[in-house]
Amino acid sequence: MSLKNRTQVNRMADGIHSVTLPITMNLPGIFRLMQGIALLAAICIAPSQAQQGRRIALVIGNGSYIYSDRLPKLANPTNDAQDIAAALRGFGFEVIERTNLTLEGMNQSIAEFGSKIGGSEAALFYFAGHGLQVKNQNFLMPVSAKVESEAVIPYQGLNMNQVLDEMDNGNSGINIVILDACRNNPISGKFRSGNSRGLASPGSSPRATVIVYATDPGNVASDGEGRNGLFTAGLLTAFSGNNLSLDEVLTVASAEVERNSGHTQSPYVNGPKTVQKNFYFRGRSTTGQLQVHASSPGAPVSEQKLGTTVSTPLVEHPLGKIPRQPSGSDRCAQLLSKSSLGEPLSATEKQEMSKSCR
Question: Is the Cβ–Cβ distance between 130 and 185 less than 8 Å?
């Protein structure tokens, strides 16, 4: 059938009744054209295959300190790093695992981490070992550190801001920093700066970043009497649970630490609650799955997560009724849930996540 000069296509639904196409083409030709446009659109908006669902982690455990009269050897960080790395691999992370690094080795590992996290959906940094603060700056100590005075720490340790800068430059969808690094040390009492026990509270950090300390700022963490440090043991216990949202994992780990320490050690968490509640370590966990229920025309679209239903009202549009654009926090929750389920995010959605999950 030929459509000459002008072809009129009538649709009786969705408020579109008459669209006039100023073309001369037979009907099969129109279908082929529409198929081609659809294919081109899919190619243009599809994210790079290499970026889909990428989760990158750098895990470091330093325990074999060379100058043990200054920084005592620690029995558990190597085990901690091995066990956390294994757990993260089970959750689909690509893991850079390192143990007993010198300062040069730590710098190289941070650079490698930074080179891999660009455009990823999640970047995670974990460190177990000695951590010191000087004038509210936190330093992660390599095994080669020879700490004879407070003044040498910035030159012999890795400034935590270096890790945060790499994460900021990487522009990942979300960032998670876990520091089991507040182990006690015999030199902290000799520092001239005010409160030098443990680590300092975090200052500014990249957007969508959650920073977790093994204990409150200014306090020290236990190295543990078993295979793992007290906090890492709590994390590993939490990883075996059914609800693997970051929020629930940290809640369970904190309860384990407080119980096993006789309430002398309490983990500290800093960062957006929306990220904590909506990031899931196990992407296909049914507790984290976003369920979209079918609805009748004109009814709200319901999104149910963890037993809570959020209704998105429909609004009028020239093409019919469509869902209202969610608020920033709603959009953050939607994108984090989609990412945790292993669904690909477009470049635009990644930018949206970065902005809405502040």
Answer: yes
Is residue 79 over pLDDT 50?
yes
Residues whose CB is less than 8 angstroms from the CB of residue 34 and which lie 6 or more positions away in sequence, other chains included: none
Taking the C-alpha atoms of residue 201 and residue 216, their distance in angstroms, rounded to an integer, is: 8
The H or E element spanning position 124 is: strand 122-128
From the list 77, 118, 111, the residue with the least C-alpha distance to 96 is 111
pTM of the predicted protein model: 0.66
For residue 85, give the H/E element and its range. Answer: helix 77-90
Tens-digit pLDDT profile for residues 171-210: 899 999 999 986 555 555 443 333 444 565 555 667 899 9
3-state DSSP helix/strand/coil % of the chain, to nearest 5: 35, 20, 40
3-state secondary structure 170-198: HCCCEEEEEEECCECCCCHHHCCCCCCCC
- The per-residue DSSP string of 251-268 comes to HHHHHHHHHHTTSS---E
- Kindly compute the dihedral angle of the four CA atoms of residues 65, 70, 71, 74, in this order, to the nearest 10 degrees: 70
Burial of 45 per CB tally in 10 Å (0-12, 13-18, 19+): exposed
- DSSP state, residue 245: B
Place of tokens 């989609």: 338
pLDDT of residue 81 exceeding 60:
yes
Residue 286 DSSP class: G
The answer to whether residues 303 and 297 touch, using CB atoms and an 8 Å cutoff, is: no
SS3 (DSSP) at 81 = helix
Residues 70, 134 contacting (CB under 8 angstroms): no
Question: Judging by DSSP bridges, how do beta strands 320-323 and 55-61 pair with one another?
Answer: unpaired
Q: Residues 6 or more apart from 12 whose CB is under 8 A from it?
A: none
Residues 292, 3: Cα–Cα separation, whole Å:
41
- Domains, the chain, ranges and CATH? 2-45 (no CATH), 51-278 (3.40.50.1460), 286-356 (no CATH)
Using alpha carbons, list the distances in angstroms from residue 125 to 58, 164, 175, 178: 5, 9, 8, 6
Q: State the pairing for strand pair 2-3/25-26.
A: antiparallel
